[in-house]
Amino acid sequence: MTGYCPVPGPVPAAPSNRGYAAGFTAANMLKDLRLAQQAAARLGWRRRWGRRRPIFYQLFVDGGAGGLDFFGIMRFIRREDAAI
Question: Model-level pTM?
Answer without folding.
Answer: 0.75
